[in-house]
Every structure is written in C-alpha cells, then in structure tokens.
Write a structure and sequence with these properties.
Elements lengths: L4 H6 L3 H10 L96
C-alpha cells in the first residue's frame, strides 16, 4: 500500500512534488495501489517511484520522468505519456489500452506481458 503522504503530496501538483523530491533525495516514493486517475502529473519527477498496481487511468504524464519506476500491474488506460521518460521502468503486466505514448522514451521493447490493447 502507498505511503498516505506520498499521493497527497503528488496531488498538490508537479511543482510541489518536484520540490519535495529535491529536498528528500533519499526517500523512494511509494504510490503503490494509489488511485491517481485523471491526475495532472505533467513534468513530475517519478523516477524510481513504486507505482505498482496503481490506478492511473487518463492521468497526464506528459514529459514526466518515470525512469526506473515500478509500473508493474499498473492501470494506464487512456493515460497521456507524451515525451515521458520510461527508460528502465518496470512495465510488466501494466495495461496501456488507449494510452498516448507519442515520443515516450523507451530504451527497449515492451516485454510480452505489457498490454497495449485489450482487444
């Protein structure tokens, strides 16, 4: 389960979140199982964050840093990941149906267990 302070901090917006991350470099954000559907997370620094099993439907991650984040089993249907950094992120079992991945940075192919569409 997510640390209750972390989703609340993230909901304050990317500027507040990024300032908090800068001031707390030794804390690994735990957002596992959090419901951040439709959240505006543009340009958020979510590198190394635990977002496993998080509900991220239609969230806006445009230009966010998700490098080395754990997105295993996350629900990203309809999410906006334009120009997001997903390098070395764990995407196993994540669902991306209808997600916009235009310009997203991916260092390698999706693993076979990533679901881009539920057809």
């Amino acid at each position: 389960m997510a640390d209750p302070d972390h989703p609340n901090m993230l909901r304050q917006g990317s500027d507040a979140w990024n300032a908090w991350r800068e001031g707390n470099p030794d804390i690994t954000p735990d957002l596992s199982e959090a419901d951040l559907s439709e959240a505006d997370l543009r340009e958020a620094n979510l590198s190394c964050a635990n977002l496993s099993v998080a509900k991220l439907r239609q969230a806006n991650f445009s230009e966010a840093n998700l490098s080395r984040a754990n997105l295993s089993l996350a629900f990203l249907e309809g999410a906006y990941l334009n120009r997001a950094n997903l390098r070395r992120a764990n995407l196993r079992g994540a669902t991306f149906g209808g997600a916009d991945l235009w310009g997203a940075g991916l260092a390698r192919r999706f693993p076979a267990s990533v679901y881009l569409d539920r057809a």
